[in-house]
Structure formats: C-alpha cells, structure tokens
Design brief:
alpha/beta, globular, TIM Barrel, 2 domains, 6-stranded parallel beta sheet, about 50% helix
Length: about 200
C-alpha cells in the first residue's frame, strides 16, 4: 500500500508532457500570428483579411477634428490580424484625404490597398505614393458609397493604358466589377492581378 502511495506521489510530481507540448505549440502559434500582423502576406499571396477604414475618416471629417486617428485605426486593425488596409481616395475627398494615404503608406508594415477612380489625377497620385495595391472603382459624386461595378468594357481603352503603368512601378491592380463572367474575362484580358466582385445585388450583401 505504501509503495502504491509513493508511486502516486511521484507521478503527481511529474510534468505532463502533453501540457508542455501544448503550451509550446500555442506559444509558437501566437508568435506566428503576431508576425503575420506585422508583415502581412508574402509577395506572392493574396491577403486573407483586408480592413477598410474609410468611415473612421468619415467620423473625423464630420466632427471637424483630428480624431479619431486613421493611423491608430490601422494599427488596431493590424493587431487584430488584418493583412491589408484599404482606403478609398474619392475625387471629392469626402473622407480620406491625400495626407492620410501618405501617412498610412509610411507607417504600415502590411500592404496598403488604394481604391480610386480611373482618372489621370488618381493615376498620378498612385504613381507617387506607390501603394502595394490599387483597386480601380467607378465613382459618382451623388452616391453615398460605391453602388456598382466598374464598366470594364466602356473603360477598356483607359484601363489598357493605366494598368501597365501602375504595374511597372510594382503596384498590383485589381478591378472592382459586377459578378459577371464576361467582366472577369475582360479583366483577365486587361492584365489585372485580381478582381473584387461587388455583391450588393447578388443576394449576399
């Protein structure tokens, strides 16, 4: 009986290898997650989570104050696991401002995705800032937010010129399009790196 009790005491004093390994695995996993949030995906991978912070700027513009801070919002999104930050620099500058894009590009350690219209002004700005991604979108001044996909056939000639210019500077280009196989094929023919499909009228949004 005494020997059995002694064996039980010795066993209870030993560390559980399963728990030890489990703790190590969790620690390694946490380090891996932190690394992803700091650096984003590898150059050959698409980001798994992009966060749009436009409406942080909307609140700031409505208040007429320097807060809430757009760069702080980007930091929090990154800490939460975002692998890309998206902002839409509209022609009317209703929320995001030129200086915001400059500041984000300077501080971010994950890719910046700049949504913009297919205009010479925006092309020039993108070539100066050199975000990792540009998403070309349609714009109407009277709309509250982007209401539809880019008419890639109508804009084909302009896109055929703009896309290679951006890509030559190391900027990947995506097109914001309707859920149409024709538009996907046209985007491919134009040499776009990716497409973003609007789901507002598809029953998913």
């Amino acid at each position: 009986m005494k020997r059995a009790v002694d064996r039980l005491k010795r066993a209870s004093g030993k560390k559980d290898p399963a728990k030890k390994d489990g703790g190590r695995s969790l620690s390694l996993q946490s380090k891996s997650i932190r690394n992803v949030t700091k650096t984003g995906p590898s150059p050959n991978q698409l980001p798994r989570l992009g966060v749009n912070i436009d409406h942080v700027a909307t609140l700031r513009q409505l208040r007429g104050t320097p807060y809430p801070s757009l760069t702080r919002a980007a930091e929090l999104a990154t800490q939460g696991g975002a692998e890309q930050i998206t902002v839409h620099l509209r022609e009317d500058r209703r929320h995001i401002q030129d200086a915001d894009v400059v500041a984000l590009k300077k501080m971010l350690k994950i890719p910046l995705n700049l949504e913009m219209a297919v205009t010479s002004e925006m092309e020039k700005f993108a070539l100066q800032i050199k975000p990792e991604w540009v998403c070309l979108v349609p714009e109407k001044r009277e709309e509250v937010t982007t209401e539809g996909g880019l008419n890639v056939k109508k804009a084909f000639t302009k896109l055929k010129t703009m896309i290679p210019k951006l890509q030559k500077q190391g900027i990947k280009v995506s097109l914001f399009i309707e859920p149409s196989t024709d538009d996907v094929q046209t985007s491919h023919n134009l040499g776009a790196n990716a497409v973003e499909i609007i789901d507002g009228n598809s029953g998913f949004g």
